[in-house]
Amino acid sequence: MSDSRLFSKIQLRDVTLENRVVVSPMCQYSAVDGVIGDWHLMHLGCFSISGPGLIFMEATGVEPRGRISPGCPGLWDEKTELAIKRVVDFCNSYGHSVLGIQLAHAGRKGSAAEPWNGGAPLTSEGGAWETFAPSAVPFSEGWHVPREMTTSDMRQVIDAFVQAAKRAERAGIKVCEIHGAHGYLLSEFLSPLSNMRADAYGGSLKNRIRFPIEVFSAVREAWPESLPLGIRVNATDWKNGGWSVDDTCYLSKELEKHGCDFITISSGGNVPDADIVAGPGYQVGFATKVREHCKIPIIAVGKITTAIQAETILSCGQADLIAIARGALYDPRWVWHAAQELNAEAAYPPQYMRCHPSLQGLPIPSNPPKKVK
Fold first, then answer.
1. Is the pTM of this model over 0.90?
2. Would residue 184 show up in a list of annotated catalytic residues for this protein?
């Protein structure tokens, strides 16, 4: 049996992941009025039978105005909840992976067209909705000017996150991640490039993390004690004067105090002119630095594409779990292939077991080859 770190179990509260491969939440822009459907059943179902330890459903708006686009899913009423439950039930019936969800609010980056429709801000004729943010600063030239949030708005958003978390639990979700990265609402509060407030929620680092911490704490109180709750955050804005990895280390220590079970370390997306230097594993170093400052399991992301690369990151202590995204889209059976390369075992559904390399070439059950006379 392999001693692969990638294929070792990890315990998050009462949830056991059979391996340390995580399928990242990946926007599909294919919901209708927040309701997910057959595309999502296929998309997530395909991963669920392919062996990853944990699969995250894509960024899910906690209220309609929290969506990025009209095609983004939501979790704000019975209809959206039942649609998610249908997918979760399918994955639990046929797959072996734990299902998680990423709860999100797009903030000033909401009310935009789907990428294949240009990704630009929606017009009023195209169904635009009001956006809000920590400050009335648009994401970029030509984008909607968001309304600066009041404390009443903040309370409403906190309640929306709490109610969505309760719906996720009822739908059968076992792991919850709050989206605090990529320039969406909580990330906007964290960064001094998007948060220009002069009240208790702006200015100093301590003030800028206040609202994200309030959201996290409220969800942690509502989310079952036995189930893990984590967050995805930016390590850097990739822009001078913006959010930095040192800020992330400070935030991680505060999250640890509030019962955070894991942190996914990503970067970018908060400003359009960021100078991002991307390459294989380009965000892993950020994950390693944050891991050195807290005891919370860290998930590394960012152009991690091969089994050896993932195994090395874990065995060298740079992170605790590996999240893959585009690599999983390109190869939905990435986990099977990684297990074969690392001499490890991954789960197969019985319907597909005969494709396992150890069984290839053997007769199909109940259909043996005919003897040649």
1. yes
2. yes
